[in-house]
Amino acid sequence: MRNSGIEAALPSTYQNTPPRKKTRKALILYAILLWVVLVTAGIAGAKMYSDRIQQEVSADLQRQTASQITVMQQEFDSRLTKLEANYTDQLTQMQSKIQALNELLTFTKDNADSKTDNSNKLYSQLAEVQKQLNELKKSLDVLK
């Protein structure tokens, strides 16, 4: 009976063992639920972190690309300007050379025309004199 007196003094929750099983099941359920929440939060955090890093890298790459394009554009513009200046200088030099050559050709043509005409006239006259001389020789031979 001693036991019965102690049992009577204990509250009713300690007497029943099934509530302990419910408490264990609830604790296990809460632990699993907490684990799922932590895993989900970790995955979501990792996803957000990777997205942020990806955006930063993308922005960095975009800035670098824009700066490189700007540098390349400036180099291209400077080269093009130098090329145009060089081309213009060479064109000016060629035009002056062509002008000088045209003047020289005109001068040569003027001098050559009068000399050539005189030379041609002289050659024609010499050819005629040679013919006449040959005719005279034939005539002389006939007379002899």
- The SSE order reads HHH
Helix count from the secondary structure assignment: 3
Query: What is the CA-CA span between the terminal residues?
Result: 197 Å
Largest sheet: none
Shape descriptor reads: rod-shaped
Radius of gyration computed on alpha carbons: 59 Å
Supply the helix-strand structural class: mainly alpha
Question: How does this model look, in words?
Answer:
With 144 residues, the chain is mostly helical. The protein has one domain. It is built from three helices and no strands. It starts with a helix and ends with a helix.
Fill in the keyword field for this structure.
144 residues; 0% strand; mainly alpha; single chain; 3 helices
Secondary-structure map:
Blueprint: H1 2-9, H2 12-15, H3 18-143
Give the structure's gist in a few sentences.
By secondary structure, the protein is mainly α. The protein is built from three helices and no strands.
